Amino acid sequence: MRYGVLGTGVVGRTLGGKLVELGHEVTLGSRTEGNPAALDWAADTGGAAGTFAEAAESAEVVVNAVGGRVALAALEAAGAGNLDGKVLVDVSNPLAFEDGELRLSPVDSDSVGEQIQRAFPRARVVKTLNTVNCEVMVDPARVPGDHQVFVSGDDPEAKAQVTALLGEFGWPADRVLDLGGIRSARGVEMWLPLWLDLMRGFGHADFNLELRRAR
Amino acid sequence: MRYGVLGTGVVGRTLGGKLVELGHEVTLGSRTEGNPAALDWAADTGGAAGTFAEAAESAEVVVNAVGGRVALAALEAAGAGNLDGKVLVDVSNPLAFEDGELRLSPVDSDSVGEQIQRAFPRARVVKTLNTVNCEVMVDPARVPGDHQVFVSGDDPEAKAQVTALLGEFGWPADRVLDLGGIRSARGVEMWLPLWLDLMRGFGHADFNLELRRAR
After folding, report:
1. For residues B4 and B20, what is the distance between their CA atoms, to the nearest angstrom?
2. Would the CB atoms of A206 and B194 count as touching at under 8 Å?
């Protein structure tokens, strides 16, 4: 498959690198041409580097791996036409420092997943993986147990396709919980403040939640 | 011990009933004297019924089991003097319907736990148990696995006392995770939207999260 991964931060480079390892054609997209991090990544992995638009244009599946607060701007730069009908995997969280504290925006009455789906109604948005660190995203066996990830989205086929991709990353289908429509992106984005407190307490990010249920 | 449980809804009645069962002296507090739910509860369990102020006055430990959005009003009615120096266990969530959807308020930049601690600086507030259904609060064995609850609060001794109480409820100390100061009430309150989506998906509330970690 041909993937366009938007974002040259650690999340984009980690996801892109894993996708190359799995045998996919990957273009890592950045705001500007010739981004040094993207060029280094391309040299290291054998993937390609390009602009957001170049990454999205050549892709069958687009992955939003920029921060949640700049996701819409990155996707506009990628171009609505380059997203039409494509699965758009959103792994972002809208975290930023405000008054010296990490805050979410949007929160509670909206989410980045929903913002993206509204702005690009012809893209098939699936929110996933934002609940774990990027190392765990592509290597769930770093953490013991049958811990889980979630998918949220309005298009069942897109969620099935993303569930298969998660399987390639090492997440068996029975550890991928379908939360429903893209509205449920709110809940997984609002998991982040607890995740951050746990990370501070544990002293590392190699953890995840396993839901236990009576039936 | 003498407990004052504020709130005659299902959460207050369930927690109060369990505390009576454990041999504690419990007064279930309500806004008005002669609340029928409280009187029924008292007749059923052998506990006492009273006003918020009566419940708090006689108590060594006060439990806030009213909804998060009315917590401050209930505690004002209980009386600041009746909370002075006491452990105040807050199990509430600030959920309410807005525009036909469940929303949290406060959220992200504040929490009910923090609001209570600010309003009653001499109370020793511990946020806990709000992440599970009230049946699970008092009977964790309803759900299989080593799933966990959290404590948040600024007073380590108060958290130790609440951890002991959780032990009476059936939560071993190694399944009580200390998240830090009362500020961390934000994260556990923001867990609720995901919890609600999971409840809808599972079709019941007998579930909880177990954190799995590499080390």
Report:
1. 11
2. no
Query: Which residues have C-beta within 8 Å of that of residue A24, sequence separation ≥ 6?
Result: A1, A2, A3
Cβ contact (<8 Å) for B200 and A180? yes
pLDDT digits (tens, 9 = 90+) for A176-210: 999 999 999 999 999 999 999 999 999 999 999 99
Whether residue B214 and residue A98 make contact (CB cut-off 8 A), yes or no, is no
**Closest-CA distance of chain B to residue A93, Å:** 14
Q: How many CB pairs under 8 A join A and B?
A: 126
Strands A95-98 and A87-90, sheet pairing: unpaired
- pLDDT, tens digit, for every residue of B40-96? 999 999 999 999 999 999 999 999 999 999 999 999 999 999 999 999 999 999 999
In sequence order, the 6+-apart residues with CB closer than 8 A to the CB of B175 are: B140, B146, B147, B148, B149
Determine whether A69 is exposed, middle or buried from the number of CB atoms within 10 Å of its CB (0-12, 13-18, 19+).
Answer: middle
Rounding to the nearest 10 degrees, give the CA dihedral for residues A18, A23, A24, A25. 110
Kindly indicate whether the ipTM for this predicted assembly is greater than 0.90, answering yes or no: yes
Q: Do B143 and A208 touch (CB under 8 A)?
A: no
Of A104, A187, A214, the CB nearest to B142: A214
Handedness of CA B99, B101, B106, B108 (dihedral sign): negative
Q: What residues in chain A have their Cβ under 8 A from chain B's Cβ atoms?
A: 98-99, 101, 103-105, 107-109, 142-145, 147, 177-180, 184, 186-188, 190-191, 193-198, 200-202, 204, 206-215
pLDDT in tens, A125-135: 999 999 999 99
Chain A residues whose beta carbon lies within 8 Å of the beta carbon of residue B144: 212-214
- Report if pTM > 0.90: yes
Task: Yes or no: say if A106 and A119 are a contact pair by the CB < 8 Å rule.
Answer: no
What domains does chain B contain, in order, with CATH numbers?
2-202 (3.40.50.720)
